[in-house]
Write a structure and sequence with these properties.
Elements lengths: L2 E5 L13 E5 L2 E6 L7 H9 L4 E5 L3 H17 L5 H21 L4 H20 L3 H6 L8 H19 L4 H13 L24 H18 L7 H8 L18 H19 L3 H11 L6 H13 L6
Antiparallel strand pairs: 1-4, 2-3
Helix pairs in contact: 2-3, 2-4, 3-4, 4-6, 4-7, 6-7, 6-10, 7-9, 7-10, 10-11
């Protein structure tokens, strides 16, 4: 039997389950709650105390879970009485679960559709709640979760910058979806090459750059020939490391606004991870290092977003 992970934050207590729910304990999957049952508040809190972050479902229950999650997301995001922390936790959980499914099975249409829905929910929570972006960026994660956290960060901040640049909702959703899955090529790299993700770009040798940059095309290869993946999202994924100076892996010098936004935000968040510099120092470095790589107006608008959203104070 195959199992699919999902985040505990996407399941609410006192709500009837439409699928069997499992936990992974002592190297085996144990059924924790059956379809038709609901988790008590006590049970739910106990799991959080035990730091169990994930549940599991069988692959055959994926559609039942997605319908359950879609309804829960819709209710949560539209309810003005639900605090922003709960909305952020729900959206982050949905996005993380969808991305983990994509990493495990990039050819899965249901996983891709879940990622699209998660990106749309991320847009709704970011644009509808002034404190949401800061709450997302303020969270720390374990080392093994950094690539997923990076993808969530890029999704949230790129969508906000896209709004400032007056992109359409469709463009924002494309940017958000591409941002969530832009690095799925990294998780498919040889295990000895994955540490390159954590190495500062300026310290990469030419050979290491060639190996690392291959993750852009690897991601595209994982998604090619899938009729449900649009051309615009493919372009965003393939070109997310490109810069206007032509020094990206594809040597592209003309970027669409969406491509430039995704590249810039990816660059910023990646620098914080690899250079271990503060947000303020990272921005200062970028305003010097990236002149010529991005449009100056876009850099200045990005700076304003970081200041306005309080992200330089984290």
């Amino acid at each position: 039997m195959e199992f699919t992970p999902l985040r505990i934050s996407t399941v609410k207590p006192l709500r009837e389950l439409t699928f069997d729910l499992y936990i992974f304990f002592k190297e085996q999957f144990l059924c924790y709650a059956k379809r038709g049952e609901s988790l008590t508040e006590d049970k739910f809190q106990k799991l959080k105390t035990q730091k169990i972050a994930k549940f599991f479902i069988t692959e055959s229950d994926e559609m039942n879970y997605q319908k359950f999650l879609d309804l829960l997301l819709s209710e949560t995001l539209s309810n003005p009485n639900i605090v922003v922390d709960e909305k952020v936790n729900m959206v982050e959980g949905a996005a993380s679960s969808a991305l983990e499914r994509m990493q495990k099975d990039p050819g899965s249409e249901s996983a891709y559709k879940a990622t699209e829905k998660a990106a749309k929910s991320m847009r709704q929570v970011i644009l509808g709640n002034p404190d949401a972006l800061k709450k997302i960026f303020g969270k720390k994660v374990e080392k093994n979760e950094e690539i997923i956290k990076h993808s969530l960060n890029v999704c949230a901040l790129a969508v906000k910058l896209a709004e400032v640049k007056k992109c359409t909702e469709a463009e924002m959703d494309d940017i958000g979806t591409a941002a969530l899955i832009h690095d799925i090529g990294i998780t498919n790299m040889h295990k000895d090459d994955i540490p390159l993700f954590y190495k500062p770009k300026k310290l990469l040798t030419n050979d290491e750059k060639r190996i690392y940059y291959h993750h852009c095309k690897d991601a595209a290869n994982l998604l090619k020939d899938k009729p449900y993946v649009t051309a615009s999202i493919m372009e965003l994924i393939v070109n997310h490391e490109e810069v206007l100076s032509g020094f990206g892996p594809n040597k592209k010098k003309k970027l669409s606004l969406s491509e430039e936004i995704l590249s810039l935000v990816n660059n910023y968040d990646k620098r914080i991870i690899t250079n271990k510099t503060s947000p303020t120092q990272t921005l200062k470095d970028m305003m010097i290092d990236e002149l010529g790589n991005y449009d100056l107006k876009l850099l200045n608008d990005f700076k304003k977003v970081l200041q306005t959203e309080g992200l330089l104070d984290i």
